Amino acid sequence: MKNRITEILGIEKPIVQSPMSWVTNAEFVAAVSNTGSYGVLGPNAEQTEMTSSPIETAERMRAEIRKTKALTDKPFGVNLAPNPDQSKDPWTRPIIDAIKEEGVHGVVWMGVGDGTVLPEIFAELKQAGVKIIFRAITPTIANTQQAEQAGADIIGNQRKPNP
Predict the structure, then answer these.
(1) In 21-112, where does DSSP find H-type helix?
(2) What is the distance, to the nearest Å, from the Cα of residue 127 to the centroid of all Cα atoms in its chain?
(3) Which of 64, 130, 140, 148 has the CA that lies 20 to 30 A from 117?
(4) Please, which residues have CB within 8 angstroms of residue 92's CB and are 6 or more apart in sequence?
(5) pTM of the full structure
(6) CA distance linking residue 73 with residue 86, whole number of Å
(7) Inter-axis angle of helices 119-127 and 141-150, to 10 degrees?
């Protein structure tokens, strides 16, 4: 089953697992990736309660990334849902640092709110060799074009963009 998705992500089957926030864990994601599909760790993978610390949250993600890597040599990603107003978002930077430091293959960029694209973060991830699957919660032609211009590798909207 070769197509652009399989080629871009280095997978056998053009299936990207949904980054289900609390449901995913290393075992689940590795199992998906081991089938030839693309597993994705959700933002609270393997957790049962939220933390109030961005650093603790990132370290929990780092641990789950390492567990996943121990269970598969196949590509997998991490969900990333940055607040469009980075001055009010202490959570994204520590997660991005963990993604880059741990050599994660890709991210599913959840365009929250109006689907804002942050080109500087796209560029940083691309420079680190991270593949970007852009998936706006509210897809529009504008945010889809912004993601494409910023360097998204795959546009994964669930429905046709609205004008």
Answers:
(1) 26-34, 54-71, 92-101
(2) 16
(3) 64
(4) 80, 82, 83, 86, 121
(5) 0.91
(6) 33
(7) 40
3-class secondary structure, 69: helix
In contact, 49 and 60? CB cutoff 8 Å: no
Distance CA 51, CA 81 (A): 16
Residue 46 in contact with residue 64, Cβ under 8 Å? yes
Q: How many residues does the chain have?
A: 163
Decide: 117 and 138 in contact? Cβ < 8 Å. Answer: no
Q: Collapse the DSSP code of 111 into the 3-class scheme (helix H, G, I; strand E, B; otherwise coil) and give the result.
A: strand
- The distance from CA 79 to its chain's CA centroid, rounded to whole angstroms, is 3
Token pair for 134: 């852009």
pLDDT confidence tier of residue 157, bands split at 50, 70 and 90: low
Contacts of 50 (CB under 8 A, 6+ apart): 44, 57
For residue 139, the SS3 value is: coil
Q: Beta partners for 155? A: 134
Tens of pLDDT, residues 102-130: 999 999 998 766 667 889 999 999 999 99
